[in-house]
Amino acid sequence: MSDLPESRRIPTRRTHRRRTVLWVVLAFVMLLILAVAWVGIRGLMAKRDLEQSVELVGTLRSQLVASDTKAAQKTARALGDHASSARSLTGDPVWSAFQHVPFFGTNLRAVRDVAVIVDDISTGAVKPVASVINNVNLNAFAPKNGKVDLEPLVRAQPAVAKATNTLQQADRDAARIDTSSTLSPVTNAVDRLRNAVSTVSQQAEVANRAVQLAPAMLGSDGERKYLLLFQNNAELRAGGGISGAVALLHAQDGAIRLGDQVSGSSFGEFAEPVLPLSDDTKALYGSITGQYMQDVNLTPRFDVSAQLAREMWNRRFGEKVDGVLSMDPVTLSYLLRATGPVQLPTGDTLTADNAAKVLLSDVYAKYQNGDQQDAFFASAASTVFTKISSGQFDAKKFMAALAQGADENRLRLWSGKDGEERQLQNTPLAGDLPRASASTREFGVYLNDGTAAKMDYYLDKKVSVGSSVCRKDGRPTSVVEVTLKNTAPADAATSLPRYVTGGGDFGTEPGKIKTLVAVYAPPNAIYLGASQDGKAAGLQTTVDGDHPVAQLRTLLAPGQSTTFRVAFLGDAKYAKAGVQAESTPGVRQSKVEPLQFDCTKPVPVG
Question: What angle do the packed helices 329-339 and 370-389 form, to 10 degrees?
């Protein structure tokens, strides 16, 4: 028992307790400071790794495009190291605890989410593709000794599919990152990640479909036969141009050869449509859509055009093909960038610069006879095809040419195999009608020649589209503007060949261009009104399935132009979506421009 009085022992105990509390508080503060320092240091290290990862992704993309496989594999390994490090640095217990701290926690969670997504992409997309990159690059699609080696593509299918699934999941995960209260540097980093992942995910989806489809469609499981429609943009159809020439392609085990070639006119007229046509198709384009090979693409629905063409070929030759491919002379000119110039049996030289003019204009001045023209087209197609099938081309430029042709709606592909056709849907090759989504509302401007001649070589087209919320109910008003101009010489009636002007045989004065223009809106939109050159326009309003359609006819003399606008009302849920338009590819295809209009007008089409 202590000898100190009770009055002196009590303050001593209180002092001891105060000191203990102070030591505890001090220890807590020190731990907090150390934890903040720990998180801060690891955050800086993670930032460094993530920045390195972003830089390496750009490097990797460039190397893949350049087919530099050794460098790409080295970059992929470095990317994996940095991505894994960033994930580790943001995944320890201290970091996890600080994710629940007010304000700072949301930023740390966002950085952690970014690190996880980048690492997932590295391990689930980059690593699998890097393992097969030696076998799958642009050169893998180039024939060697007359055939494409399909085995590397088949072996790559699982890896490419896994990479695509990973990127699609990463795209969804990035969209879910909460940036509502993050600091601007973190918000900007998340936005950059979202944009990059979205773009790469879409590119991967295209690559995956190509790798999954190419082996079977090139005959890995037996011979395939395809119909090639060579469309002539000098006489427009909604899907491109009349099918002036038709050829049979044979594909087996990666080897492709060109078979029979015939003119589109040689099919003649079928007494009735070869397949049932919808009432909407007949109302818009007539029964002739299913009666003439040259008219199967009066409709912009390529799946309908392809099936009609296949049935016509079957009825004439007793042979049902596996799919249908269409292209035009402009696409051929793009391919000539990859092959270089080719010499035709006629002595003519086709180049990337002159192919469209030679095939869509000069040929009619040089050969007045239709049979001679058909023979010239056949020789041009055969010569270019022979060079391509031999592998004598630049693979990078070749793939770029195909991509440009597809993006401009000049290249289309339909498969008679249900599974393959589903894979092709919603790709640039499919020829789908306009759609609406949360991000984009699409419109279509489709042209059909009414001159029954080759005057569309001289038809210029400009398309603009814009949208604004003009109503209190929040529904967006969209306006499509189309300008057409006849650029033929003033003396076209006498200076151009009769075959080009039509000679007035079909009711159109020589030198003038008659065009039917159909403007398609996304499903369930409502037609509001139309104007032509600032005045109310009379036109046909109807539907094609779920798509509202406004169609009118124009007649232009040389040098004359006309501008018309069509307005549609959309669904309020798509009010914030952007707008874009596709159009029938002419000889010259201009970029779709944004359009501003006045909401104060009852129908903003003037």
Answer: 40
Residue 581: its H or E element: strand 578-583
Return the structure tokens found at 292: 């003439």
H or E element in which residue 203 lies: helix 184-217
Distances in Å between the Cα of 526 and the Cα atoms of 75, 249, 342, 439, 478 are: 52, 43, 50, 19, 10
Residue 427, CA distances (Å) to 208, 433, 440, 473, 601 in order: 12, 11, 15, 34, 37
Q: Which one, of 288, 233, 301, lies nearest residue 449 by Cα?
A: 233
First-residue to last-residue Cα distance in the chain: 106
Q: Which string of DSSP letters, residue by residue, matches 272-311?
A: S-SS---HHHHHHH-GGGGT-GGGGGGSS-HHHHHHHHHH
Rama region for 545: left / alpha / beta (φ>0; ψ in -120 to 50; rest) = left
Give the Cα-Cα-Cα angle 294, 296, 302 (nearest 5 degrees): 130
DSSP H/E element including 366: helix 363-366
Predicted structure pTM score: 0.83
Helix pair 184-217, 104-121: axis angle to 10 deg: 20
Cβ atoms within 10 Å, residue 277: 21
User: Which letter does DSSP use for residue 362 in this model?
Assistant: I
- Write the DSSP string, 116-140: HHHHHHIIIIIHHHHHHTTTSSGGG
- Residue 344: closest CA among 387, 315, 395, 398: 387
Among residues 548, 487, 552, 561, the alpha carbon closest in space to that of 516 is found at 552
Please tell me the distance from the alpha carbon of residue 286 to that of residue 295, in angstroms, as a whole number. Answer: 10
In this predicted structure, the answer to whether residue 27 has a pLDDT above a threshold of 50 is no
Element (DSSP H or E) covering residue 529: strand 526-532
- Distance between CA atoms of 197 and 116, rounded to whole angstroms? 13
Q: Which of 229, 238, 228, 230 is nearest to 456 (CA)?
A: 238
Q: What are phi and psi of 406, to 5 degrees?
A: -70, -45
Q: Report which residue type is found at 336.
A: L
Q: 253 near 598, Cβ under 8 Å?
A: no
pLDDT confidence tier of residue 46, bands split at 50, 70 and 90: low
pLDDT in tens, 117-143: 888 888 888 788 777 766 666 666 677
